[in-house]
Amino acid sequence: MSPEPASHAHRAPVIGLTGSIASGKSTVSALLRELGATIVDADQLARDAVAPGTTALAAIRARWGPAVIAADETLDRAALRRIVFADPAERRALEAIVHPDVEALRGAAVARAQAAGAPVIVCDIPLLFEKHMEHQFDGVVFVDANDAVRRARLVATRGLSEAEAEAMMAAQLPNEGKRRRASWIIENNGSLDALRAQVIALWPTLCRLAG
Fold this sequence. Notes:
Elements: E1 14-19, H1 25-35, E2 38-41, H2 42-49, H3 55-64, H4 77-84, H5 88-115, E3 121-124, E4 139-144, H6 147-158, H7 162-170, H8 175-181, E5 184-187, H9 192-207
Parallel strand pairs: 1-3, 1-4, 2-3, 4-5
């Protein structure tokens, strides 16, 4: 008798999560983690990609010299930031070094989460739309808040002036374009309870994408 065909393994949906500055994306990420999602954080991957001993850190040292390496052999982020934000060509050079390693780390993290049987995998990526990454996911959650709310949060939580907050917001893509490209939108203009209610309501929809 021929053996029974193997059943298809559970595949967790892989969801992109993004939001404009001060929208509350990190809070939504934490709420999704509470519900059982595995979170793959782009900021943490970027730190891991340039940790001491990595090829990316060696390449950064080779290009920009010891001035961007701290005494403990970690990357001096402030020193490198001053260089790359002053010159778009330098920023592109840094991205060319770091982004392939970040992508590889993300792929490995997603594979580990799939193997562990995660119900939903959420990739938290601040510049998801800017990098045109939306087609890499089963869907994208966009966290939004109106300009006045985001401006007030930046002033209150980061000690910025109104003008500085406005400049940071203006440096990002307009929210309206991101809203059109998102699969789901979470509005975060109100209380934490209101935000939590939206995330809880969305959770079953994300889980149903499992294949």
